[in-house]
Structure formats: C-alpha cells, structure tokens
Design a protein that fits this description.
It is a single chain. With 105 residues, this protein is mostly helical. It folds into two domains: 4-71, lambda repressor-like DNA-binding domains (434 Repressor (Amino-terminal Domain)), CATH 1.10.260.40; 74-104. It contains six helices and no strands. It has helices at residues 4-18, 23-30, 34-41, 49-58, 76-88, 91-104. Helix 2 (23-30) packs across helix 3.
Length: 105
C-alpha cells in the first residue's frame, strides 16, 4: 500500500499532466526549481503546507483535491477485472492497453 506521501506525489504528477504543464513551467509558477518538483513527484521530499497550497493554486484545484486519493485506490475486484482484461486481450489490444497505461504514468 502506498504511503500518503507517495499518493500525494502521484496526485501532483497527475494534476500537472492534466494541465499539460512541464516540470519547468510548474516550477516557474510556484517559484521553486524543476528539480524540487521532480523530487515531489517521486515522493523524495515532504512538501510544506505552503507549497501544497501554491501547487493547488497553480494547478487550479481546491486544496482538498490535492488530498483526494480515491482514483489511486484499487480494490481486489478491480484488480481481478484488470487481470481478466489483460489475460483475454489479443496482441493488438495489448498494444493499445500498454499505450494507455504508459500515458497515465
């Protein structure tokens, strides 16, 4: 199970990508280095509340959304569904699934 810091890191990365922002652009918006954003997204640093607040504003989301990790929670039924989809997919569908999966990372 992912830690809260790891879930926050995933959330920051997801929101940044949804806004089509590069690390550099987001870092300019909140006045930190791109390296710092990279460390945040890798859960290698613990952000302050002030930084999380700046990120929420730059990403145009409410502060509470930064801590909404529901989209990252997978129950056992969902896992089995995913396994079933991959197990029954042909080569062409597997290629498409891989493209979609990679776009989410």
């Amino acid at each position: 199970m992912a830690t809260d810091l790891e879930l926050l890191a995933k959330k920051i990365k997801l929101l940044r990508r949804k806004k089509h922002l590069t690390l550099e652009k987001l870092s300019e918006m909140i006045d930190v280095s791109p390296n710092h954003i990279s460390k945040l997204e890798a859960a290698r640093t613990n952000p302050s509340f002030t930084l999380i607040s700046k990120l929420a504003k730059a990403l145009d989301v409410e502060l509470k959304e930064m801590f909404d990790f529901e989209e990252f929670k997978v129950n056992s039924l969902t896992k089995s569904d995913i396994i079933n989809i991959f197990s029954n997919a042909d080569e062409k569908d597997l290629q498409k699934l891989l493209i979609v999966y990679n776009s989410l990372l």
